Amino acid sequence: MQHKTLLTLSFLLSQVLLLACAEDLECVPGFQQKVFYIEQPFEFTEDQPVLNLEFDDCKGNNKLNFEVSNPDFKVERDGSLVALKNISEAGRALFVHARSEHAEDMAEILIVGANEKHGALKEIFKIEGNLGIPRQKRAILATPILIPENQRPPFPRSVGKVITSEGTEGAKFRLSGKGVDQEPKGIFRINEISGDVSVTRALDREAIANYELEVEVTDISGKTIDGPVRLDISVIDQNDNRPMFKEGPYVGHVMEGSPTGTTVMRMTAFDADDSSTDNALLRYNILRQTPTKPSPNMFYIDPEKGDIVTVVSPVLLDRETMETPKYELVIEAKDMGGLDVGLTDTATATILIDDKNDHAPEFTKKEFQATVKEGVTGVIVNLTVGDRDDPATGAWRAVYTIINGNPGQSFEIHTNPQTNEGMLSVVKPLDYEISAFHTLLIKVENEDPLIPDIAYGPSSTATVQITVEDVNEGPVFHPNPMTVTKEENIPIGSVVLTVNATDPDTLQHQTIRYSVYKDPAGWLEINPTNGTIGTTAVLDRESPYVHNNIYTALFLAIDSGNPPATGTGTLHITLEDVNDNVPSLYPTLAKVCDDAKDLRVVVLGASDKDLHPNTDPFKFELSKQPGPEKLWRITKLNNTHAQVVLLQNLKKANYNIPISVTDSGKPPLTNTTELKLQVCSCKKSKMDCSATDALHISMTLILLSLFSLFCL
């Protein structure tokens, strides 16, 4: 009853609109009513008429044919819409496309629920919003136009008609808006005399779904005499866009042993068609699964949501028994609710079965053997294990621990990252004489913890038996290095030290001989039998072979083994200083101008190779000066420096001044050095000493001459 009420109201509305302008109506090609509202029944009954559609091409409807968007319905020749089978769900809308030899049109049938009835009626009677008729009386009737997208040529094609009840002479229709005189321009046009509206090219609903135009009536001068009135043109969706998977690649993960029904991932496709129609109603399906073992149907996809879930028991979802832990599903998305007429797209979903640590690592054998020579370090054996978990995860990677037999921390074990083997190494050299055998107990675990119902068993521990081989070891000096303190310059043949070396191979009873290995200055010798070291030359602390007062020599201890083994001992001799070096004076040349006002000639310094207290403070003295007048004097500045000062200006000449320097050693040592003093002529800040050689005066010669004259 409610269904019939909606149809009756819809029909009455169309009749009211047509009668309002009956005196001026002409035949308009197409459906006489373009929008229908029907209430969703409990079920559409097979072959039971749903409603009547009236189509008229105004030329006899020759070769009239109807197409329905839902293949479960058809339209009879007389316009009756009937169901082809009993249907409980038909969607939200049906579209009927009618085509004859002279016209084609589209009608929309909206299916509403019982709770939507009042809203539907409101939409039918909302004249101003949907049919372009204002509340005040207007002479223009512009009913909404529905145009299917993707129509085929020829164009232009008539799609509707605007009529007016007032036949003003010379009046013309004028159409404006987006699609006419606004971009995109030129899609629609109107016959200014008849009011026929035509489309000039195929429309694309996905580009523009609705056009809101305005139509008005003008007089012969172009002045508006009625309107404007809104003309709504809606583009009816066609299923011209296939679904698209846009978000790939699609990769999902599921843990092995997961319960049945575990969600792995979601696959969703996009359809550009009208989402309110079956054209964009997608359904999902698994077309193919690779591989097909242990079951060809490992997964299920929710046809509406696209959720992929597991459908096999947790026992079958066992990564270690699978042919491969990677499954590929070819997923199909089909529009039109999955019907055969729907368009499709496919994508591949890759599902990886992730490993969990459900297998403990196990040694490949219970006991391993290793042999190592004493004194050698490095890897001695590789321990092998098996683990059925994924090698790329912490459930497979092994961690080894020595749990017994390593009190001296002589052994370490590390995991080979490529093979997962345990590399057992000697890190502290072993001594055969202390222990010839070692027994280690080693356990293996995974980086990741085992799952609760799995535990490490006896096979996760192993024993390693290590045999140490005896090697002829070189003698060892005690202590090493050896240190001794001696004065430099001790007599040749003096005993420096008697060294002591022992053979670690206590069970072999070998003899030891000694020899010099490195003696940079050639000062030492060693008794080959008892190891006594003596001097063969004077020990000089100031020698370049002595560094920081220490002289270093190396000696060898050689056993009688076959082949013989050698040990090296280092001797450090600390040399005590003796005052055996005279001090030296610097500089030995000085220059001064013959007219100099500053008669401080030069500052002298003294140095000594010896050590304190055999060096400074130094004593500086001048030899006795000739003649009644003293020409210069020397003044001490500090412990290491003194200054020579002229007492008067001298003539241009060379003078040799004997100066003695004495150190503070016991006994002290003195050194006399001649200071050469050049008295030069100085003009314009230039010093000329070229003629001083000719006027050379040696104080020594002067003293000798005066002494000779005095004797005569």
From TrEMBL:
Its topology with respect to the membrane?
Answer: Lipid-anchor; GPI-anchor
| Pfam families per UniProt | Cadherin, Cadherin_pro
Give the protein's biological function.
Cadherins are calcium-dependent cell adhesion proteins. They preferentially interact with themselves in a homophilic manner in connecting cells; cadherins may thus contribute to the sorting of heterogeneous cell types. May act as a negative regulator of neural cell growth.
Q: Name one GO cellular component term.
A: cytoplasm
According to the record, the segments passing through the membrane are none
The record's GO molecular-function terms, alphabetically, read: beta-catenin binding; cadherin binding; calcium ion binding
Oligomeric and partner information: By contrast to classical cadherins, homodimerization in trans is not mediated by cadherin EC1 domain strand-swapping, but instead through a homophilic adhesive interface which joins two elongated EC1-EC2 domains through a region near their Ca2+-binding sites to form a tetrahedral, X-like shape.
Task: Tell me which positions the record assigns to the signal sequence.
Answer: 1-22
Q: What CDD domains does the record tag this protein with?
A: Cadherin_repeat
Q: Name one GO biological process term.
A: cell-cell junction assembly
Q: Which PANTHER family does this chain map to?
A: CADHERIN-13, CADHERIN-23
Record bears the keyword Cytoplasm: yes
Q: Which UniProt keywords apply?
A: Calcium, Cell adhesion, Cell membrane, Cleavage on pair of basic residues, Cytoplasm, Glycoprotein, GPI-anchor, Lipoprotein, Membrane, Metal-binding, Repeat, Signal
What sections of the sequence does the record tag as coiled-coil? Answer: none
The protein's name in its UniProt record: Cadherin-13
- Residues annotated as domain Cadherin: 172-245, 246-363, 364-477, 478-585, 584-695
Which compartments is it annotated to reside in? Cell membrane; Cytoplasm
SUPFAM superfamilies reported in the protein's UniProt record? Cadherin-like (SSF49313)
Mind telling me which InterPro entries this protein's record contains? Cadherin, Cadherin-like_dom, Cadherin-like_sf, Cadherin_CS, Cadherin_pro_dom
